Amino acid sequence: MMDSANDVANMLNGQNGHQNADMNVDETQQSEETQATQTADGNSQPLSQEEKESHLFGSLHPCNPAQQRLDLWRTRPRITIGRRGDNDFVLHGGKVSNLHAEILWDGKTDVSSCVKIKDMNSTNGTFINGHRLERGTYRILRQGNEISFGSRSSDNANDDYRYMFYHLAAGSPKTGLYAHYDLGPELGRGSFAIVYKAMSKTTGQWYAVKIIQESRRTGRDDASNSSNVNLQREIAIMRQLKHPNICELKDVFICDNNEINLVIELVEGGDLLDHILQGRVTSEADARHITYQLCDALAVSDLYDADHRLL
Ligand SMILES: Nc1ncnc2c1ncn2[C@@H]1O[C@H](COP(=O)(O)OP(=O)(O)OP(=O)(O)O)[C@@H](O)[C@H]1O
């Protein structure tokens, strides 16, 4: 059982060479030297940060320099946090409840890896990015979320138990969508897909990523040969479609779990339907202009015999 945040940090420094925010330069250098792998010719090579942290599913980095970094070990997928001594992490703040929150990891080490936090009916609340969780409820913890155990009091700087969450279980992806794109907020949902705003890691340019689940598209979990052939055909057609009123397909990723990720041109400004419902199409001339653009795009897609539902 880990007794306190300090004990955990000390243990990590001693046994695993993990660095605290307040570790001095000499100690840091020494820790990097001791964390080396032996190559065949006897030379040692420093471990990458990812290798050094391969025993962790996440870590909590304090915003308050008086606090220690909290490392979340893979061997302990359920971690309790609170003021009482029997918690995995003991935080002594006046606004921290005896049992304040728990953090749960689903044990996965690929991009589907998920970490969640539960507020354990704390008196002063658990906050994610400044928003208080309802007592006893859960949230998914995402990379970069700020977690606060109890609200920060303005008159006592030490009573600041805010931490930045790092999700380490999945490592950095080497292939697939997540190797090339960082996903941003959800843009919307359709019958088959959830669409996210996404940024190319190489160019910094924004796109829309349509994540299509096989089960939503075909009603089955496994991809049949015929549905795969149809999909490949549709993708081939979409790649060829070039029209100012059709979002250009930039990239396609087909995952092992039959999920399909389409990276397409981002169109900002919202849905046409919302536009109409909000009364922003006011004149016949507006309606004519929109209808013309729709028909023009459909005419081009018809030339390729494309499936309009996928467009
Ligand atoms: N290229 C894009 N740029 C910006 N937002 C998009 C883009 N594509 C889709 N969206 C948003 O995502 C939502 C879902 O899109 P999707 O294409 O999956 O479904 P749909 O065409 O709206 O509905 P259905 O699947 O029922 O035909 C859209 O309503 C829109 O808000």
Automatic annotation (TrEMBL):
User: What protein am I looking at?
Assistant: Uncharacterized protein
User: Which keywords does this Swiss-Prot/TrEMBL entry list?
Assistant: ATP-binding, Nucleotide-binding
Task: Tell me the InterPro entries matching this sequence.
Answer: FHA_dom, Kinase-like_dom_sf, Prot_kinase_dom, Protein_kinase_ATP_BS, SMAD_FHA_dom_sf
Family, similarity comment: Belongs to the protein kinase superfamily. CAMK Ser/Thr protein kinase family. CHEK2 subfamily.
Q: Sorted alphabetically, which CDD domains does this protein's record hold?
A: FHA (cd00060)
Residue intervals of the Protein kinase domain: 181-311
**PANTHER family cross-referenced by the UniProt entry:** SERINE/THREONINE-PROTEIN KINASE
Q: Which residues bind ATP?
A: K210
Residues passing through the membrane, by range: none
